[in-house]
Design goal:
- With about 230 residues, the chain is an alpha/beta fold.
- The protein has two domains: about 110 residues, Rossmann fold; about 110 residues, Rossmann fold.
- About 55% of the residues lie in helices and about 15% in strands.
- The protein contains eleven helices and seven strands.
- The strands form two sheets. The protein has a four-stranded parallel β-sheet with strand order 5-4-6-7, sandwiched between helices.
- Helix 1 packs across helix 11, helix 3 crosses helix 4 and helix 5 packs across helix 11.
- The longest helix is centred in the N-terminal third of the chain and has 18 residues.
């Protein structure tokens, strides 16, 4: 069985969630009481955010390549980034990585295709919503990706970085996020929502039915990890 290497810590709450999700999915596939092999390299979120704020993508890539190298030396056969935002540099990172990487964006695109969705909203950090890496992957599958308006993006980013990555999940924040979902559905005609920040499912995973699917990128990614482990 292949060992997965996980770049975690960006942020810590979702890294904990990944660990649970991968174990849960693995045990669905192999209900024999065993557990999957994982190596987690928890890195410094503040350092990564600093590179993003400075738009120093070369430094971000170099730092992540170095951290993935640690996973490879520890015995990981393949790797993942337990976060959406660092996928801003995924293509270059994948080229330089010493081990194969599974993209959360491509895995989510495959999930959207399987549901025959053609127009999706995207929530995430401000870096993710302003960048185009989701749009670039999804457009090749004929799927449009719509982001909230600038004011809404600021609200989501502030709540994401100020609360969610710190493990703070407030009912009023959940209500505020769902108000934006409703507007995108009514005004933009989205058929689903990409939870493009791996802390977002922690506050939106169990919401009442909004009439559209929420694509939980962490859960989708975890399923892709287990498929690779067992392949």
């Amino acid at each position: 069985m292949k060992t997965v290497g996980i770049i975690g810590g960006v942020g810590p709450e979702s890294t904990i969630d990944y660990y649970r999700l991968i174990i849960g999915e693995y045990q669905k596939q192999k209900p024999d009481g065993s557990y999957p092999p994982m190596i987690i390299n928890s890195i410094n979120l503040k350092k990564m955010v600093g590179f993003l704020e400075a738009n120093d993508l070369a430094a971000l890539t170099a730092a992540l390549v170095d951290e993935i190298g640690k996973l490879a030396r520890a015995g990981a056969a393949f790797g993942i980034l337990a976060s959406n935002t660092p996928h801003i540099v995924f293509d270059e990172l994948n080229r330089q990585s010493p081990i194969p990487l599974i993209s959360i964006v491509r895995a989510t695109c495959e999930a959207a295709k399987s549901l025959d969705l053609k127009k999706l909203g995207l929530f995430g950090s401000g870096f993710t919503m302003r960048a185009k890496f989701f749009q670039e992957v999804f457009s090749s599958a004929g799927i449009a990706v719509i982001v909230p308006d600038p004011t809404e993006q600021t609200y989501i980013h502030d709540k994401y970085m100020g609360e969610l990555v710190k493990g703070i999940f407030l009912p009023e924040t959940r209500a505020g996020l769902l108000t934006i979902v409703d507007r995108l559905q009514q005004k933009e005609g989205i058929q689903g929502l990409i939870l493009g920040g791996t802390e977002l499912p922690l506050i939106l995973r169990d919401v009442p039915d909004r009439g559209i699917p929420f694509l939980d990128t962490a859960q989708i990614h975890a399923k892709a990890v287990v498929r690779e482990m067992l392949s």
